[in-house]
Design a protein that fits this description.
The chain is of the alpha+beta class. Helices cover 26% and strands 36% of the residues. It is built from 4 helices and 9 strands, in the order βααβαββββββαβ. β4 and β5 (71-73) form a beta hairpin. The chain is globular, with a radius of gyration of 14 Å.
Length: 131
Amino acid sequence: MLIRGKLASGKGEGRKYLSKKEYIKQFEEVLSFTPFSGTLNLLVEGKDYKKLQLLRKKGGIKISGFEENGKKFGAVDCFSCLINNKIRGAVVIPEKSHYKNIMEIISDKNLREALSLNDGDEVNILIYEFE
């Protein structure tokens, strides 16, 4: 499945969650890479938005939620992907996401730097679906 989106700056939330050891450990186990401490946020519209909603309903590889110091951290679905036909990564869909039109991507690289991306640039995400 191919989904296109426009790069948008986030609020730094992804960095906070990707610094949690419990998430890192699980991402390493299921995706075979240690994620860079931040997500690439893509604004998805039109037919690509519909594809993203289908992906949300399907559910991917489950990263379990956990509790740390009395605070609950929700589960995450992930789907392996290829970013701009160059870099391997994963689409991550947090259980508690507030933004239905934002697709978050992780990789072991700083994707903005590795792909020379700026806000507003179109990014292609080829998603390998799990049966």
